[in-house]
Amino acid sequence: RATMKSLRFISAEALVSNAELARRSLGSLAHNLFPLLFKASYLLEQGEVIHDLVENWPFVNFNLGKLLGTTVDYQEDLSHRTCSVCLESCLTGLRDYVLNQSSPYGKRLKVVDLTGIKDVEVQVCECKKTMGRWARTQLLSKLCLELLVNLQQRQCDPGISEISIDVRVDLFVTERNYELVMQALLKKCYCPLKICCVAFRSDNLALQKFFYIIKLIDPSLLRKLEVVHNVRLEMEHLEMLFNSIHFPLLMSLTLPARTFNVRRFTATEEQMLANIGEKMGEMTQLTELSMSFSILTGRIQKLLSPLKTPLKMLDVSNCSLNHADMAYLANSFHANHLEALDLSGHNIPDLYPSIFFKLLSHSSSVLRSLTLEDCNIQDTHVNMLIVSLSPCQKLQEFRFLGNPLSSQALKHLFTFLCELPMLRNVEFPVPKDCYPMDITYPIDDTSLCRFDHQKYESVAEELNLILLQANREDVKTSTPLFGSYDAAVQETKNELGAYLINSFKETLEKFTSSLNKM
Q1: Is CB count within 10 Å lower at the N or C end of the chain?
Q2: Gene3D superfamilies, alphabetically (predicted)?
């Protein structure tokens, strides 16, 4: 459905569609038209106009998320468009703002906020070329270093040396862009564009490099920290990190798989876990915690009880939680505040059905997202699941891939899901009866695609018909076989793939070497 545009916005589109005319006219335009023209230029992907608007920006603040978000003149939110043409023009315009000596406006810009951009799977921009978080990190770092080189060549310009602009940004660092980002951060004090990292994601990075760069980004400003996949951060390293660095504003923490492993816990490691819990307790802003694929059996209370602020998001998928862990979660003060919960990889129906029901009833007034993948939910458990979900009237997302449910059970469940008024997104499993009889759950990756695709399509149509007949066209359904879309993984998949191949090769070489010695 087309979004209504005001006459002002239509006029702005008409002007910027003629890039040459728009660029010539900037010097004679009123300041208050710049935000309007910026959004119109972004919508039409007029890179040259975007560049010139930023280069001559007349305000103290430039907030990309707000400029592209819902506005009076055009309500459509464009912040999910990570259009490469637009974003590159925006960043080069920022560099040239510093260098531009003939700007008709005084240089008032003090704060640039680039954090409002959302990376999504489907891009609707004409060029179809995106600039993800990793590429934005790369380009901003490159431009800052270019700017320094340029300033060295123009030492006699005192006006430039007085410019200082805080650039708030979400950084994404891997082995491939580490050197460039590190150099930009090291020279930050000399550059008019000051990189201020408010969210940091690290993947495929040596531990030593991670510790070095995390100190360079100014952790006192950090609100979100994601350490994922190929960063070998174990419990002793996490304790060292929390002991040496203070994160006063940290709101969201994601830890890599196997950070914790209680199967080999000694008294020293028990104390280490308690220390980590206490350090997290000092992070009074922390409300989101993800620690999937760690082994935390019987230790959830020790880790979470020191927290003084209730968690709004908790991901403990595949963490081998036992009855005591679930009982703690259900009875803790976190339960009443959980807006997003991931309990994937736990045999909920067999191990703790009543505790699960209690946990959902406590969080039902606020719960927006629930993920129960590979939880051994079978046909006989569907009624129990419906009873548990019934109070969750604010639920927007429900993911339950990998559960052995028949077509009939899915239809029964979908009939109920129609009654959840806020529900917008459902990820459901391939029905069990679409797979061969000998399939076992959880299904391994090699067997995931071995199902009757024609039968699946037929069942998916029936499920969508149930939604349609209930006037719930607003609910989007899908079966992403290999998990939900992750923009960061998608952007760096080639680098991660190369890393995994090298790791496998090194392992084989060590194994061959050992055999030869024998």
Answers
A1: N
A2: Ribonuclease Inhibitor
